[in-house]
Each structure stands twice: as structure tokens, then as C-alpha cells.
Amino acid sequence: MRKVLVINGHPDPESLCTELARSYKRGADKKGGDCKLVHLNELNFDPILHYGYRKRTELEPDLLKIQEEILSADHLVFVYPNWWGTYPALLKGFFDRVFLPKFAFKYRENSLFWDKLLTGKSARLIVTMDTPKWYYSLVYKSPGHNSLKKGILGFCGIKPVKVTSFGPVKLSDDKKRKKWIEKAEHLGMQQK
Length: 192
Fold this sequence. Notes:
The protein is an alpha/beta fold. α1 packs parallel to α6 (174-190). The longest helix has 17 residues, at 174-190.
């Protein structure tokens, strides 16, 4: 049985993202999977990597625990809203603080290349947005999807990374949002 870790990157506990994350977990639980849900807004951590990689910043206990959960997971699910073309500062700060050298990747000495330390894992991005999906893809070239899929997760060896986008949220009604929530549960049942 695959171990799944769902990470809700929306800072608002009453958001649609929170409901989508819960729905994904509900689906995984129905399938009998080992699924854990983490809401980043409930973790105690400073999202700023104050010194970059020049000087080590000690990780808070919540971040040490989530690193362990990431290492033990087979599949990672990130649920977040698309804000300003990418993702909220809370989620970006989470990646800055958690996906560190020697945890997620390792630079090779005297080389431009690196080792990917999170290989063998897959991921799913569940993204809410107000921008129509076709416009986000065609005009903006999906910057947030590409940043996470290639620039962060792929850089660390996580693949495949699949993306499910829901939107435009601002034009949706209860019926449409209910369908999105049901789809998230179905994805959870498939654990992909």
C-alpha cells in the first residue's frame, strides 16, 4: 500500500483548497490507503530562509517531522491556490525551509550537477485559480505549475508530477465546487 502525504498550502482554514485536501484524503482513506493530511497554516515555522544556503538555520520541530513524513511517503499531494501566477508565500516558504541541500538534493563537488535525493516518489498538484485554465496555459505558459513540477519537485527527483487545476473559482457556483470536491476524492481513491 502506498503512503500518501497531502500538504494543504492555503493559509485560510476555511478555503476551497482545505476542502479539496480533506476530500482527497477521504478518498484515499476509503481505498484503505495510508494517507496523512498536513495543513501548513497549522505548523509552527518561520517561512523565511534568512541566510539562503550560506548559513544553516535550525529547523523547527514541525519541519523536522514533516521532513520525516516526506521521506517515508511514496506520493505527495500539494493543494494550493494560484496567486499571482504561482503559489502562496506560505507554500514557497515551506519549500525554502524544507527542501534543503542534503535532504532533497545534493550539489556535487566542483560540478554544476547535483544528485536528486527524493527519487522514487510521485506527486500531484491540485490547484485552484481564477484564471481560466486555457488562458493560464496559453498566455502565461503555466508558471506556477512549471515552477513546482520542474523547478522544485523535478529538481529533487520527484516524478511523475501530475497537475489538476480547478477554475475559474470566482465564476463557480456550489454545484461546480461540489463536482471539484468529488473529483479530488476520486483522485484520492486512485492515489494519484
